[in-house]
Amino acid sequence: AEAPKELDPERDFVKKMREGNKNVVIIFGSQTGTAEDFANRLAREAHAKGLRPIVFDPENYDYQHLSKLRKGQEVLVWILATTGEGEPTDNMHAWYEAMVPDPEDLENCEVAEFADIDGVEFDRPLANVAYLGFGLGNTTYEQFCAHMRHINSRMKALGAKQLMPCGEGDDDANLEEDFTNWKAKIWPIICEHLQVGPSQGGADLTNDSGSTEPELEWQVEEVEEVGDDSAAQALRRGEMTVKSIDVHDAKHPYMASIPTAYDLSPTGERHVLHLEVNIGGSGMKYRTGDHLAVWPTNREEEVQQLLEALSLSAKADSAIKVTNTDPHAASAYLFPSSTTTYGAALRHYLDITSPPARDQISMFVLPYAKSSVARDLLTQLAEDKQAYAQGVVGKALTLSGLLAEVRLAEQLAGVNENERLVLPFAALLSLCSRLQPRYYSISSSGTTSPERPSITAVVLRYQPEGDAQNWRYGVATNYLSTITNYVNNKHTSRSGGIYGGVMASEPAGSAHSVTHLLFSDAEQTSQVRVPVHVRTSSFRLPADHTVPVVMIGPGTGVAPFRGFIQERIHQQATGATVLFFGARHYEHDYLYKAEFETQFAQLAQYNPESAIVTAFSRDQPHKIYVQHRLRERADMVWKWLNDLQGYFYVCGEARFMARDVKDALVQIAQSEGGLGLSDAESWVGSLKKFGRYQEDVWA
Ligand code: FAD
Ligand code: 2AM
User: Fold this and answer.
1) What pTM, to 2 d.p., does this model score?
2) Least distant ligand from the CA of 622
């Protein structure tokens, strides 16, 4: 027999857990950071309840050790997001492959190799493990929470004891409330299982000294000397710290220069940006259909407002050292390096714009309220769902906005300066999630522009329903908008400070500080750099260019198809290449118009059916959408997909568009193929199953 594989002791999470004397182990599968954030929040709450939690990223550990967990003494909690079409997140990929070798047969698929435990039956290796789980998903996708459900079934099949049915959160409805409700139910169950009494398990936010302030996860120390080298100078400028390593991935972005950037719809109501990113020399490669992750910077005005609300404006550039208060925690540092500045932490590393959650308000803001007016206001927002929905979510209130409201209420009530709420920076570190990279479908071909992937992003600006006078700005897209402006106006100096917009309709205050977006390159000239990494996707053209390809890409959903088209020209594709593009107005929003027209003329030389079909929704009194155009060509669509075994692709907004397009295809199968409804649905289902119906959609 083959000798069992040696496991790396550094990747043994159970050993780490025991060294730190922990009794709740939380393992998260996270793609965009939400599940990771939930895992960390759960740990903070567990800690406040007198439990001893630890959070692990499965990417850094080996699943084989799971079997060593001890029922009655330790509890495992899964927090697992589902991505794409029912897939695990990247960081859960290896565990999932091993634990769920056959998703079609969850009960009986082959037992994965686990660390050997005495007295446990071979086919029930997890018989000593007690667990619970919460899945994050979105009901607009067909495979809602599939990943958590699969892991759950496998855990049971492998003998583990489920302490409670899994919770499920729906990002399309109210993920936050689903999580809060689930959390409320788990504590008594965990405490009972571990047999910790109410005094331990049910303790609330009091620490050893008996005060009501929470024990915090991070400690913040102001440090004087940071040295004089270039890293220290960059630190003083409040720039982002990136570890200089050779491999660039989800944890180590590459600082890419931006050779070209422009506004594709300068006269439109919405601005769509085209940015080309130079990854030459980075070692990163991409394939047509992959995603580019952009690590954004927060808007400077928001950073300054928050510093002001924390009474830290004067210290924005002071160096601080941030370390974990728990020597046994899985990570000792919160930021890429132990030292940063207050300003840089808010600018580059923390999500300071998402509305704070109810439990975050009650755990990390409320305890610092000294006046009754502040306490009342915060208690109401934290405890009254409706007040929270209106006063926080409906207004898209940021943390600085919340603190400003408290400050105003205190002023109006005549509260003394020394009685006013001051949020400690260390509490803010528990309150705010980490700023997450945003994904963009790469809009170029990996074959024809291997070193210059481009992205196509619509700039997000909106006025929240509950605060219709004021604008909110999407973090990453407004950052990219500032970058675009800068790239087009290179004469502006580094000391240019906050950089105003070139866009006529640009609302005031949307800009980022250019000072913090510039990075010194080897020649010591100032260059704007954007931290990026490539994420592999499964959105792919057929290898055989003679097969027809039908692409549905309204709005920025056209992004990956620009790459597909470049690729099909390169292949001199003899199969039909058809793009259905939709936008508001022909005049303002026809993205890449000239380029597409030239390219389709070329593609039509290889196959006369190749064409771009447009649907401009607001150029006439009634709406015309891509799915209407699709139905108008029902016979051709049926021929391409059914008779000629073509491929169908949908990209863009997931909620309505992707669903409506699928419905249109079902109708086409009925009208053209003469199928009944359920057969038409099975036909679409089988296209999906065989990879001939692919979606790249986002919420
Ligand atoms: P954020 O700061 O993240 O703000 C977004 C949040 O603002 C929303 O979650 C919502 O809570 C809130 N919000 C937005 N509108 C309103 C409103 N009207 N009222 C109240 N609240 C509101 N985008 C593209 O443009 N092009 C692409 O090619 C592309 N490809 C993607 C591919 C994938 C796989 C994924 C997952 C996403 C893709 N996206 C793409 C979306 C992109 O990643 C970002 O989500 C988007 O650009 C917004 O980022 P932001 O940082 O500017 O906004
Ligand atoms: P609308 O905003 O005028 O309703 C890109 O955003 C294009 O997609 C716009 O023309 C937009 O139209 C359109 N769109 C909106 N909802 C859609 C849906 N459910 N299906 C297809 N296209 C849609």
Assistant:
1) 0.91
2) 2
